[in-house]
Amino acid sequence: MTQNFFEIFQLPIQFNINEKKLDENYRLILKSIHPDRFVNATDAEKTQSLLKSTQINDAYKVLKNPIERIEYLLKINNISPNVTLDNNFLMQQMEMEEKLEGQSNIEQLTKFLNEITKNLNEKFQQVKRQLDEERNYAAVVSELAKIKFLAKLNQKIKDKSFSLMAD
């Protein structure tokens, strides 16, 4: 496949995508190339169908996940996603991790989760503006690292909440 993932699903090359259109186009494409449709085809056609299905599934997975979508946009614009975080954010990371360690009840965790979710949504909005409006891919790199940290922290909070509820 020589098309990029956005072109495959007939979407504009940007962070903010129409997820309904992505889902609809995904189903239509899969329906037309699904290996089950090639039961009576040649081995080469079956293999080609399987390869295309795998590629479509991979492309869909990337575009469906906002973090992977950011990484893909950076990749197709030849921007390396590797960055060294500034000391301020590294300190904030340590403080947030310590705060999580200190949370011992569901109410505290819920409040902390809401705070992190709000922060994460703000970062996504900032990246949306940087990618779609400003086309400032380089500025997105440091935000991506922060988003990844916040997403992991978000999951850690959820895991800890489930663990507390199970006890």
Kindly describe this structure.
The chain has seven helices and no strands. With 167 residues, the chain is an all-alpha fold. It has two domains: 5-64, DnaJ domain (Helix Hairpins, Orthogonal Bundle); 87-166, Monooxygenase (Up-down Bundle). The radius of gyration is 20 Å and the shape is globular. The relative contact order is 0.11.
Provide a short characterization of the protein structure.
With 167 residues, this protein is mostly helical.
Q: What descriptive keywords fit this protein?
A:
167 residues; mainly alpha; Helix Hairpins; Monooxygenase; 2 domains; 7 helices; 75% helix; globular
Per the CATH scheme, the topology name of the largest domain is Monooxygenase
Rg from Cα: 20 Å
Tally the structural domains. 2
Beta-strand content bin: under 5%
**Biggest β-sheet strands, sense, barrel:** none
Kindly provide the name of the CATH class of the largest domain. Answer: Mainly Alpha
Poorly predicted runs of 5 or more residues: none
* Overall geometry: globular
Helix count from the secondary structure assignment: 7
Mean pLDDT: 91
Task: Chart the SSEs and their pairings.
Elements: H1 5-8, H2 19-33, H3 43-64, H4 66-76, H5 87-102, H6 106-133, H7 137-166
